[in-house]
Amino acid sequence: QVHLVESGGGSVQPGGSLKLSCVASGTTISGKCMAWFRQAPGKEREGVAAIETSDGWTSTGASAKGRFTVSHDNAKDTGYLQIDTLKPEDTATYYCALKPGCNMWPEADRFTYWGQGTQVTVSS
């Protein structure tokens, strides 16, 4: 059975940084697409960033460009999302997801496996 477990969320002040992790078990992330989504209360789930673990290709959503960096470590079956210069509007639950390839990755419905989410709260 495939499980994804996120960690690294927390409460930070504006301007701070966080590095989220997503550890996969029951499968390898090698050769797959790992993506990060976020959902704020009352809003739809939004694609933040994605990475093809086969070749390192990455993509970021429009709201994430410039401050969000996605990476991975195949040997650890772990993906990462580095968020810099955090803003209050980044407050949300962040989820990682996994599927065979990154085609049409911002569409959440295309992902089979999801983590339980990690909360990021940005406030002063």
What does this structure look like?
With 124 residues, the chain is mainly beta. The relative contact order is 0.32. The chain has no helices and 11 strands. Strands 2, 4, 5, 6, 9, 10 and 11 form a 7-stranded mixed beta sheet that branches. The model has no long low-confidence stretch (mean pLDDT 96).
Short summary:
The chain has 124 residues and is mainly β. The protein has strands at 3-7, 10-12, 18-25, 33-39, 46-52, 58-60, 68-73, 78-83, 92-99, 113-114, 118-122. The mean pLDDT is 96.
Task: Give keywords.
4-stranded antiparallel beta sheet, single chain, 124 residues, 7-stranded mixed beta sheet, 11 strands
For the report, how would you describe the main beta sheet?
A: 7 strands, mixed
Average pLDDT figure? 96
Radius of gyration: 13 Å
Shape: globular
Q: Let me know the number of strands.
A: 11
Q: Give the helix/strand class.
A: mainly beta
Helix content range of the residues, please? under 10%
Detail the poorly predicted runs.
Answer: none
Discrete helix count = 0
DSSP strand content: over 45%
What's the SSE pattern? EEEEEEEEEEE
Spatial separation of the terminal alpha carbons: 40 Å
